[in-house]
Amino acid sequence: MKNKLLFIYNPMAGKSKIKTWLSSIVECFGRGNYEIVIYATKGKKDAKNIVIDCLKRDDYELVVCSGGDGTLNEVISGIMELEKKPVIGFLPSGTTNDFASNLKLPKSLPKAAKVIMHGEVFPCDIGVINGKYFTYTAAFGLFTDASYETPQIYKNTLGRMAYILEGIKRLPNWKAYHMEIKCEDRVINDNFIYGMVTNSVSVGGFKGIAGKDVLLDDGLFEGIFVKMPQNVIEFQAVINDLLKGNLNSDFIYSFLVKEISLLCEEMVPWSLDGEYGGEYNTVEIKNLHKAITIIRGVD
Ligand SMILES: Nc1ncnc2c1ncn2[C@@H]1O[C@H](COP(=O)(O)OP(=O)(O)OP(=O)(O)O)[C@@H](O)[C@H]1O
Hints:
The protein is α+β, with helices and mostly antiparallel strands.
């Protein structure tokens, strides 16, 4: 009997390049001797609902999703609600594809499909923030709303430049949040313009932002919190440090976290894997060690 593969793709992700390669990808999965069930998503939460519906009805060994980090987040959120968790394959066809850089996947979709058929299955950490899952990043502050407020039509036409332009619009309005951060026995009180808890070598399309040694299965996230700079020169220095992955800066707190809580006097909007993740004044984040299994390329 053939093993079952559920293939979910977002036809609108990135520049819709999945449409060009659909037939080659399905042929590749067929050669892997799978019986394939295919769904195209129609909008928000669709990928999550498809995963839950299909996997409650039938046994699937492999769930492959194609889209951006938002689609992957929805698929993982669905799988986390199920007792029996299938292996996940990711075909990155989104705009920035941050998480894909951790999986050593080729840029070409048919080649990435081959990796899914022959790659290495490994257990990967994910995060949970106030009951919502994230694959590689939970963030607040400067630029983070650009990740979910950039209109899809601009992403389809301009690609990653759409995010950069949307981010530039926000430069004149930096807002600081006064927060108390608790992590193990450490308590920090300060004004922050940006913060993220991440498990990725690339965030917002910028590589090295969380340092050079990011491990996906060590039970730890990198926590990075940027203090409010006092003037434009300091601000520019902080941005340069972040882009170069130089976390040894007077304005940046950076440390490894398994669990962390943040308390703010006001509601703070969060972005989870580049999508809107809700507003909170109290946040609890935990690393769920090796909670999913996903396929990655081998060197
Ligand atoms: N058919 C569809 N039309 C419009 N939006 C969709 C459709 N299917 C899914 N979506 C929504 O599109 C959003 C973004 O998708 P996704 O992350 O896959 O692509 P992207 O935003 O282009 O890529 P990236 O996250 O890398 O920037 C998700 O919130 C998803 O729910």
